[in-house]
Amino acid sequence: MSFISPASLLDEVELQPGRPPVLLTEITGDAPRWAAEHREALRAVVAEHGCLLIRGLGLRDVAGAGAVFERLSTGLMAEREAFAPRRTYADGVYSSAQWPPNQPMCMHHEQSYTLEFPGLMLFACLTAPDRGGATGVADAASVLEELPTALTERFEREGWLLTRSYNDEIGCSLVEAFGTDERDAVERYCRANAIEFAWQPDGTLRTRQRRSAVMRHPVTGRRCWFNQVAFLNEWTLAPEVREYLVEVYGADGLPFNTRFGSGDPIGEDVVQLLNKVYEIHTAREPWRAGDLMIVDNLRTAHSREPFEGPRDVLVAMADPVRMSDCSPAFEVTAR
């Protein structure tokens, strides 16, 4: 295997409208070694285009995919404040979020509600679904430019508010989200991460955290629409799912919801607009077994489309970035 320079690798990348950048390769042996030898070139392509799908690595198991993840990153991260359960395969190597196969996971930036989030997302497809299930991508700077100025200016002034209600029936439990169910430890985490919290009479926890909706990429300086305003909003849920959750838990007890930073509700029309703009800028390519995708998490939003049949896509979050290093439009101060 010979070293390929960033410039040469850029020339090999296939660029087509509606598809993420794709690099075709033929690796018959050591994929982790190949990844290590071409790490800088691959990361340069991601810096240029925001993401890259590599086809032909032949990834087939957790050990091989995890080794590739480690070679390509500067450090894998443990997930905190998860919104949906995952299976942990190894340190920093997870399954995709457990989300109903018939429901889409709309565009979002992983852990954009945390004070330290992954700068890089890594996905490895071990088993491709029979139908659907693509991991779509969308350029966050282009989405920001497409949105109405009055709307983005309001979000820049106010930020966005994430509300969560933790229970043992739906969504993540305290242990899955915080790594513990001890009240003192959960409260210490919340205080250190600018999260308001309130224990309910039945022992469940409700939280509120206000975050910036617009950030500057720490390397390029480009302003990006960086949040999970649409994905975690009640109006993105399927109507029957939303109606059921509201009936069971009440409007204020949904597992998660988003609002304007002032606390005002976000209307269904706003959420529909956000998802429409995301769709305009979405690029997608069906998974094939063995594929690897590298995504700049700040510059590029990602989604998961509904699917049929088995789908096994491993996930790693890597290269931690502090929100304070991204010139957030709305400053967050931890206590």
From TrEMBL:
UniProt xrefs under Pfam families: TauD (PF02668)
Which species expresses this protein natively? Streptomyces cathayae
Iron as a keyword? Answer: yes
Keyword tags: Antibiotic biosynthesis, Dioxygenase, Iron, Oxidoreductase
Q: Which InterPro entries match?
A: AlphaKG_dependent_hydroxylases (IPR050411), TauD-like_sf (IPR042098), TauD/TfdA-like (IPR003819)
The UniProt GO MF terms for this protein read: dioxygenase activity
Class in the EC hierarchy, top level: oxidoreductase
Q: What is this protein called?
A: TauD/TfdA family dioxygenase
EC number(s) given by UniProt: 1.14.11.-
